[in-house]
Amino acid sequence: MAGVYGRLERRGLRIEAQGVQHCMDTLACYGSNGSEVYCEDHVVIGVVADWHRKENVGHRVVREERAALRIAGDIRLDNRDELFEKLKNMGLRQDSCDGEYVLVAYQRWGKRCPKYLLGDFAFVIWNASKSELFCARDALGIRPLYYFEDFQRFVCASSIRAIFATGGVPHSIDEMRIADYLAVNFEDQERTFFKHVRRLPGGHSLTVCNERTTLDCYFKFEFGPELRLRNSAEYAEAFRELFVDAVRTRMEGCSQVGLLLSGGLDSSSVAGVLHSLGFDKERPISTFSAEFPGFPEAHEREWMDAILEIGNFDPSFVRVDQKSPLAEIEEDYRVHEEPFYAPNLRIDTMLLRVAKQKGISVLIDGIDGDTTVGHGWEFLAELARIGKWRALYRQLRELENRSNRSLLWLLRNKVLLPNLQEFRSKRLHVPSILNEGFSRKINYLDRMREQQKLQFYQRFLSYRMLHFRGLCSGLLSAAFQVEVRQAAHHGIVRRHPYFDKRLVEFCLSLPSEQRMQGIDRMIQRRALQGLIPYSIQFRIGKGDWSRAFEHHLWHSDRYLMDQMLQKFDVISKYVDRRTLDVAYQACKNGCGTRDHFRNMWVCLTLFIWIDRKNASRHSV
User: Fold this and answer.
1) What is the pLDDT of residue 17?
2) Is 551 within the bounds of a domain?
3) Residues 460 and 489 occupy one common structural domain
4) Do residues 277 and 354 both lie within one domain?
5) From edge to edge, which strands make up the β-sheet containing 213-217?
6) Using CA atoms, how far apart are residues 548 and 294, in angstroms rounded to an integer?
7) Is 250 left (phi over 0), alpha (psi -120 to 50) or beta?
8) 262 within 8 A of 291, measured Cβ to Cβ
9) CA separation, residue 239 to residues 246, 496, 524 (Å)
10) Which residues of 487-519 are buried (b: 16+ CB within 10 A; e: fewer)?
């Protein structure tokens, strides 16, 4: 984990060291050992990290004197062996740090170098011979990188706060981003809540010189043909090989490692692989689990205990069902510079605190494994649409036998309703939570039409297309942005085996029937045979945290809702009051739907952010 900063003064203005240190200080959450900076008249690059930790030893400003190159980066590579074979003739040592690997890759391939890198990274390179900066972000957008530019300067950093600390950067709000947030629309992966600050999207790079800035896409997932193997066993073996390697590479170079463990298939699979690879032989692996004794539908202790019995684990159970989602909202906004769509952030924070107390520096988790692998439920609706009734009947019958759901319930909820929802989703309309005058002013309906054109034109999408669209969604990048910063605030870095690029590409190529075979996610269940207990391997469903969130949002944070309604003028420009009142009354009457609570959440977090921003401006 490291914080990165880069700056180029385009008019040759000399950069003062004192101002640079102020910018680096804003990145202090990424490391307590100070910063390392390279400064040369009108350019600076720097990095902040905890260098006493084994996994951070390479997070320094690395230089290549002969080629006049410098790099500062937050980098973790998964394909060092492959890169070494390609680059060893250029003087690269096998034990070189990740930054040196990237710098030599840049020497060989220039701005095409990110396409050869596997792992999580955000870096900036200064090429003195060309007088240009080169910035890149990993393919899936796990490590953050923001930037600002005008005719005078270019600035990039791991946080928005560091960019503002540079000075001369307007704080104007981006109203289109506000509309997207209220509409829960994350398709735009460049905008931030500040009009003049942009995110570098995952899979992209920037080349910056005095005259211009060039944005290039070096990677995007492609919707290609299905992978065809001989039988289901071969698919399962291929998945297992990729998944095991994804877990193994994320354990390399770790000093104090822990595992976020629920009783679900995703994190349990990670635990099973860690045990099979022998990472628990010398000392136990610390696990951290959320408990909901007051909410049975979210409580998973039975399955947690089952996976803990297979290996040498040191479990920590954290009761999280007594804390409201916004209990520490002031602290949250000191960490996060923008409104965050993260209803479970409080749970993450409680787990991170316990992990920090135990000296953990790296947390492995199974977040969104179901997004990468895909459940396959939508395949049932697809079978109905294409008229494969016998295949659909067989699937529903087997599901009925495996679950406590009747065939009629499955037919209604997994076949008919998904097809109806997919049909309705093609009928564009501006979300009712948006103020009508505001949405017209910014032409939000036109924005939605443009975004739809970038997706698919078909009225009904195949399951593989739906899966592809989900993995390309900006929601994942937005979630990583929140969790990376939250973990860094506690001195921890999180690593995600399910978001290994090779594993994602493999899952995107799978035929739909490899997921749904009388039970969802069948390929993963087969692949984990012998690594996890049978009770988890073929468990249907997982803990549902939503009721705990809804209960505490209403009963514990209602005073904030009342405050928002009393000071509605703070957000009246953006929010439709009638829709908000309907959501409030539905929650009050105990009949609030997920849509009602979602509207309350986005309006409340937006209100607190703007109100806090206004108060800060007036106090200056």
Assistant:
1) 76
2) no
3) no
4) yes
5) 62-64, 69-77, 119-127, 132-137, 204-208, 213-217
6) 8
7) alpha
8) no
9) 11, 16, 7
10) bbbbbbbbbbbbbbbebbbbbbbbbbbbbbbeb
* H or E segment and range at residue 49: strand 43-49
DSSP state string for 202-217: TTEEEEE-SS-EEEEE
Instruction: Report the alpha-carbon distance of residue 373 to residue 52 in Å, rounded.
Output: 36
Whether 123 contacts 6, CB under 8 Å: no
Q: Do the beta carbons of residue 102 and residue 78 sit within 8 Å?
A: no
- Partners of residue 36 on adjacent β-strands: 47
Distance of CA 290 to the CA centre of its chain: 20
Q: Indicate whether 163 and 246 sit together in one domain.
A: no
CB 192 within 8 A of CB 177: yes
Task: Please give the pLDDT value at position 457.
Answer: 45
Q: Could you tell me the pTM of the whole model?
A: 0.93
Collapsing DSSP to helix, strand or coil, 405 comes out as coil
Q: Characterise 91 by phi-psi region: left (phi > 0), alpha (psi -120 to 50), beta (else).
A: left
- DSSP β-ladder status, 146-149 and 153-157: antiparallel
Mutual angle of helices 345-357 and 474-489, in 10-degree steps: 40
Q: Are residues 135 and 252 in the same domain?
A: no
Q: Which portions of the chain are predicted below pLDDT 50? A: 52-53, 55, 457, 620
| 227 belongs to a structural domain | no
Q: How far apart are CA 610 and CA 618, in angstroms?
A: 12
Q: Which pLDDT does position 29 carry in this prediction?
A: 85
| 103 shares its domain with 211 | yes
Strand bridging mode 204-208 / 493-495: unpaired
User: Rounded distance, CA 559 to CA 561, Å?
Assistant: 5
| Co-location of 257 and 353 in the same domain | yes
What per-residue confidence (pLDDT) applies to 233? 96
**What's the pLDDT score for residue 52?**
44
- Chain segment 569-606, per-residue pLDDT in tens: 999 999 999 999 999 999 999 999 999 999 999 999 99
Closest by Cα among 179, 155, 183, 151 to 167: 155
Q: Which residues pair with 288 in a beta bridge?
A: 260, 316
Which pLDDT belongs to residue 404? 82
Q: Return the CA Rg of the chain.
A: 25
Q: How many CB atoms lie within 10 A of CB 130?
A: 13
| Cα→Cα distances 452→56, 222, 426, 458, 503, Å | 42, 17, 9, 11, 27
**Which pLDDT score is estimated for 14?**
87
